């Protein structure tokens, strides 16, 4: 059973953008959406380009679903589940993430597909 | 055995060439060996735009013949050799140089010659005509030693010629025998308005003048004496008193000609000899000579159809015209003089705005018979469609020429037009053909133009073309959404206006007021660019950072492996040895792959995100600044070495390039912008392949706009000529900001131009004539951008907070272990998949 790993302070995150954290040897892209008071975490590796760049993509929503657009070839990924919008067979891991006392922590065990229900994937803040 | 028949074409003017092009594309192509005679030293060129020879176009620019056309199609052409006689008995043509060619079929496309009235003195030196490039060269030579020029003839061609004299810097007069200008096409009211407008341009118009004698002047070379006793001194006399058909070769072999000239033809364009056709201005059909190019093309198509044994006939042509004479819109449709029995006339005259419109309708007021438009001709295509298709007029026909009140739909819906209605008269494209192209998947104005050629001639039909497109798309159920994305029900241009009018400074504010959701990479980038070009804030400010693409966030260009490339600005491509060494040292120290770019600067590849600040610190210390290679903004101003070193250089292209690059650096736009400046017409900087191109001439700078290389190259359009530097910069300021304000996102200037209603002429009217009255505003906005320029790298390096972003991990100083380089030709490059596997094995083994 994995434990929560603290990665940084909320101030280290970039509003409406992403950063990359090293969590137990894994590259995790963490996105902060102040408009939704939400933080999301998915894998940083872009399966289409084979480069570790998703944290540098632009974020927003498609049909209300929060997403990141890969900065390389512009495919979109669900921030809640890591599933690619353009091809549902492709996905990146999505990680549970939480905020406590201004500290951001990630659970380095990806959500299984069963668990990929939106409410578990993110920490929606007050 | 050669079964081919021989087809001889006499004359390689616009119509002759159009015929050849049509023939080689037809079924008849294989049946004929083609021989053509061309009296002039060069093959067909565009006589309609002849006056542009004086505003910077070259003979090559005016050519209508694609490179290698004759060779490719096996056409034998005798250039500079006039066909002198036809022997119909033996069926052979003999040329002035003695070439004899036997024919099976013969096409006469001999055109016309300018009529010179037999006024005593008309043979004096510097008494010229206006038809060929040689005539223009004679005008140019004469103009160099002249101050005053007179055109005899105030018709369409005469006014074109007057423009040419004006462009040559002469004090220009037009002398007309009739009581009004353009007597054939305009009524008195239209002619009077045209005179007023042309005189406002400093061209003196003399009406009712019958020239009786040209003799020695006292101030100038000539004195013209008129029947009314008045005189006028001038150095050049240019005759433009109409044309006469070149029918001498037809007379010589006994073909039937009209009593006042012209080779008689039937509906198949056959002369009195069934094996001989005549087309264009030399032909007389139903007692009429057609002095316009479109009917000539229609005749050419008829002969091609006849030779291909397809149906086709020439049954007359509409002589309606719309043109811009010295910047004045003039149009004439059908029975402009109301000569039809019972015709009724409506006129609208606006003295303040110098607009005149006249509508001629049938007695029952149901059909449009003709129209005259001067000063404002936007109704032309609608009126022409009413006239040509016999469409029933609205209850109050005058509503078609009265000024449109806001919100009222203008003119005729495209649905009212039959499929046979001709939309583009230059290329004879019908509404049916356009609808076919739309159904086959052409859904943009630019695409439609490329596919059907409609709207690519004079451009007069492009508004109508657009409305046909919109109407058809709606009918096909294609929702014509111009919204930028799902978050804003607006176009990029709407968003730009909202930002300006409501003084909106952040994306959040715009989203709250006019959008929904969180936004996406499409609207965020567009708004980021809009805000940057309007307010010119530092783009990495906290409230703007989420609007920037990764390249803008890291002020570098992301490459395939997630590393970045770095491009310092090298304005105009001019660089000192010390600066070159500094770049070399940085490249060496950080082990970057270096390559010279197409924009005359150096690109350094393979920089990791955490290396960027240190690299830039060294570059800035060496005197460099950001090159904005990462931005949708001005990239480079490419230049040739110019008059400073080059034997042929006319002006200092490098100096101007540096000045322009420094002026426009940092300007954010809908897409990247590239400039070129060449020091002479040899064009070594390839300026005509750039968004903004400048070429030095002996009289100033020529400005070209909206060119581009890349996937779909587009030759830039000549925009203005012989400009001083101040005017040049004023025009560039206006063009660029107008582009920034009105283009769609990710739309290069070339596509922007191709989709602009009214095209080049419209852009000229906005920028040069300031028809929207926003010229000063556009310049002011540019000045703000220029005044608030900052090197984004300098600002970033001075900001601790910003520098925190330049690391791969927020919680570790480690580098991305997925970035792997190998060496090739003495430099690094990203490892490919095979090599990565190999390294992984070695790592695991260790």
Automatic annotation (TrEMBL), chain A:
Molecular function as annotated in GO: 2 iron, 2 sulfur cluster binding; metal ion binding; nitrite reductase [NAD(P)H] activity
Keyword annotations: 2Fe-2S, Iron, Iron-sulfur, Metal-binding, Nitrate assimilation, Oxidoreductase
GO biological process: nitrate assimilation
Residue ranges of every copy of the Rieske domain listed in the record: 5-106
Protein name: Nitrite reductase small subunit
Matches recorded under Pfam families: Rieske_2 (PF13806)
Automatic annotation (TrEMBL), chain B:
SUPFAM superfamilies, per database record: FAD/NAD(P)-binding domain (SSF51905), Nitrite and sulphite reductase 4Fe-4S domain-like (SSF56014), Nitrite/Sulfite reductase N-terminal domain-like (SSF55124)
Superkingdom to which the source organism belongs: Bacteria
Domain Nitrite/sulphite reductase 4Fe-4S: 631-773
Segments forming domain NADH-rubredoxin oxidoreductase C-terminal: 320-386
PROSITE patterns named in the record: NIR_SIR
Required co-factors: siroheme; [2Fe-2S] cluster; [4Fe-4S] cluster; FAD
Any one GO biological process: nitrate assimilation
Keywords, in A-Z order: 2Fe-2S, 4Fe-4S, FAD, Flavoprotein, Heme, Iron, Iron-sulfur, Metal-binding, Nitrate assimilation, Oxidoreductase
Binding site for siroheme: 684
Gene3D superfamilies reported for this sequence: 3.30.390.30, BFD-like [2Fe-2S]-binding domain (1.10.10.1100), FAD/NAD(P)-binding domain (3.50.50.60), Sulfite Reductase Hemoprotein, domain 1 (3.30.413.10)
CDD domains (UniProt xref): NirB_Fer2_BFD-like_2 (cd19944)
Domain Nitrite/Sulfite reductase ferredoxin-like intervals: 559-620
Keyword hit for Heme: yes
BFD-like [2Fe-2S]-binding domain segment(s): 423-469
Boundaries of every FAD/NAD(P)-binding domain copy: 7-287
Keyword Ubl conjugation: no
Cofactor binding note of this UniProt entry: Binds 1 siroheme per subunit.
Pfam families to which the protein is assigned, alphabetical: Fer2_BFD, NIR_SIR, NIR_SIR_ferr, Pyr_redox_2, Rubredoxin_C
UniProt binding sites for [4Fe-4S] cluster: 640, 646, 680, 684
Example GO molecular function: metal ion binding
Pathway(s): Nitrogen metabolism; nitrate reduction (assimilation)
Family: Belongs to the nitrite and sulfite reductase 4Fe-4S domain family.
Assembly and binders: Homodimer which associates with NirD.
Annotated NCBIfam families: nitri_red_nirB (TIGR02374), PRK14989.1 (NF011565)
Protein's UniProt name: Nitrite reductase
């Amino acid at each position: 059973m994995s434990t929560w790993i603290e990665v940084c302070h909320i101030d280290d995150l970039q509003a409406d953008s992403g950063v990359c954290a090293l969590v137990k040897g894994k590259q995790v892209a963490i996105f902060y959406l102040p408009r939704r008071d939400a933080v999301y975490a998915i894998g940083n590796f872009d399966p289409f380009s084979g480069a570790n760049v998703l944290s540098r993509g632009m974020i927003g929503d498609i049909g209300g679903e929060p997403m990141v657009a890969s900065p390389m070839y512009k495919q979109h990924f669900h921030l809640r589940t890591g599933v690619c919008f353009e091809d549902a067979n492709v996905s990146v891991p999505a990680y549970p993430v939480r905020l406590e006392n201004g500290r951001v922590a990630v659970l380095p065990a990806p959500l299984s597909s069963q668990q990929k229900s939106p409410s578990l994937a993110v920490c929606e803040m007050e | 055995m050669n079964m081919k028949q021989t087809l001889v074409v006499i004359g390689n003017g616009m119509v002759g060439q159009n015929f050849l092009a049509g023939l080689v594309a037809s079924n008849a192509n294989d049946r004929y060996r083609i021989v053509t005679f061309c009296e002039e030293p060069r093959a067909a060129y565009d006589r309609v735009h002849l006056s542009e020879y004086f505003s910077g176009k070259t003979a090559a620019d005016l050519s209508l013949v694609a490179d290698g056309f004759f060779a490719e199609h096996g056409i034998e052409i005798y250039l500079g050799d006039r066909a002198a006689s036809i022997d119909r008995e033996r069926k052979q043509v003999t040329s002035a140089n003695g070439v004899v060619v036997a024919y099976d079929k013969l096409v006469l496309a001999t055109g016309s010659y300018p009529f010179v009235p037999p006024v005593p003195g008309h043979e004096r030196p510097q008494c010229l005509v206006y038809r060929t490039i040689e005539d223009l060269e004679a005008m140019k030579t004469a103009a160099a030693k002249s101050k005053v020029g007179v055109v005899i003839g105030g018709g369409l061609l005469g006014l074109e010629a007057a423009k040419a004299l004006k462009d040559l810097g002469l004090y220009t007069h037009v002398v007309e025998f009739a009581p009004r200008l353009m007597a054939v096409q305009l009524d008195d009211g239209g002619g009077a308005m045209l005179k007023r407008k042309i005189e406002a341009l400093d061209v003196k118009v003399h009406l009712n003048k019958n020239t009786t004698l040209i003799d020695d002047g006292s101030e100038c070379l000539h004195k013209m004496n008129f029947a009314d006793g008045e005189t006028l001194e001038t150095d050049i006399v240019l005759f433009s008193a109409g044309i006469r058909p070149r029918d001498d070769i037809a007379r010589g072999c006994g073909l039937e000609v009209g009593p006042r000239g012209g080779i008689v033809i039937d509906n198949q364009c056959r002369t009195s000899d069934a094996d001989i056709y005549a087309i264009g201005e030399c032909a007389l059909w139903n007692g009429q000579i057609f002095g316009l190019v479109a009917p000539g093309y229609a005749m050419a198509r008829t002969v091609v159809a006849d030779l291909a044994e397809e149906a086709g006939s020439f049954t007359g042509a509409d002589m309606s015209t719309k043109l811009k004479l010295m910047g004045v819109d003039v149009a004439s449709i059908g029975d402009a003089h109301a000569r039809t029995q019972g015709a009724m006339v409506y006129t609208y005259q606006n003295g303040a705005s110098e607009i005149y419109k006249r509508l001629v309708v049938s007695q029952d007021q149901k059909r449009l018979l003709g129209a005259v438009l001067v000063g404002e001709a936007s109704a032309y295509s609608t009126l022409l469609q009413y006239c040509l298709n016999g469409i029933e007029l609205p209850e109050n026909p005058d509503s078609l020429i009265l000024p449109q009140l806001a919100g009222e739909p203008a003119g005729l819906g495209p649905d009212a037009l039959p499929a046979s209605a001709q939309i583009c008269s230059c290329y004879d494209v019908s509404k049916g053909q356009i609808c076919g192209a739309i159904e086959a998947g052409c859904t943009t104005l630019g695409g439609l133009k490329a596919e059907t050629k409609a709207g690519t001639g004079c451009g007069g039909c492009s508004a109508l073309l657009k409305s046909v497109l919109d109407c058809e798309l709606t009918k096909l159920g294609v929702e014509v959404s111009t919204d930028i994305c799902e978050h804003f029900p607006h176009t990029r241009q709407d968003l730009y206006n909202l930002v300006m009018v409501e003084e909106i400074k952040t994306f959040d504010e715009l989203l709250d007021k006019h959008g929904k959701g969180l936004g996406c990479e499409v609207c965020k980038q567009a708004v980021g660019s809009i805000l940057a070009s309007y307010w010119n804030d530092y783009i990495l400010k906290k409230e703007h950072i989420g609007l920037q693409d990764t390249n803008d966030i890291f002020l570098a260009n992301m490459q395939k492996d997630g590393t970045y490339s770095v491009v310092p600005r090298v304005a105009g491509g001019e660089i000192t040895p010390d600066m070159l060494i500094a770049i070399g040292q940085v490249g060496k120290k950080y082990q970057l792959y270096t390559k010279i770019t197409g924009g005359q600067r150096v690109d350094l590849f393979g920089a990791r995100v955490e290396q960027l600040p240190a690299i830039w610190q060294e570059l800035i210390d060496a005197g460099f600044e950001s090159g904005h290679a990462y931005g949708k903004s001005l990239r480079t101003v490419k230049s040739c070495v110019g008059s400073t070193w080059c034997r042929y250089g006319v002006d200092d292209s490098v100096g101007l390039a540096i000045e322009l690059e420094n002026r426009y650096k940092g300007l954010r736009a809908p897409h990247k912008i590239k400039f070129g400046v060449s020091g002479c017409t040899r064009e070594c900087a390839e300026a005509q392949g750039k968004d903004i191109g400048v070429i030095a001439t002996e009289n100033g700078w020529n400005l070209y706009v909206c060119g581009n290389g890349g996937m779909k190259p587009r030759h830039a359009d000549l925009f203005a000529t012989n400009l001083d530097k101040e005017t040049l910069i004023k025009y560039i300021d206006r063009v660029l900001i107008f582009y920034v304000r009105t283009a769609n996102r990710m739309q290069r200037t070339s596509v922007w131009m191709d989709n602009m209603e009214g095209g080049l002429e419209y852009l000229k009217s906005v920028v040069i004539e300031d028809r929207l009255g926003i010229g000063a505003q556009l310049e002011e906005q540019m000045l703000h951008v220029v005044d608030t320029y900052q090197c984004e790298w300098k600002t970033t390096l001075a900001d601790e907070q910003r520098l925190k972003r330049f690391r791969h991990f927020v919680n570790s100083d480690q580098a991305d272990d997925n970035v792997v380089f190998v060496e090739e030709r003495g430099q690094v490059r990203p490892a490919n998949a095979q090599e990565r596997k190999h390294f992984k094995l070695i790592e695991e083994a260790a």
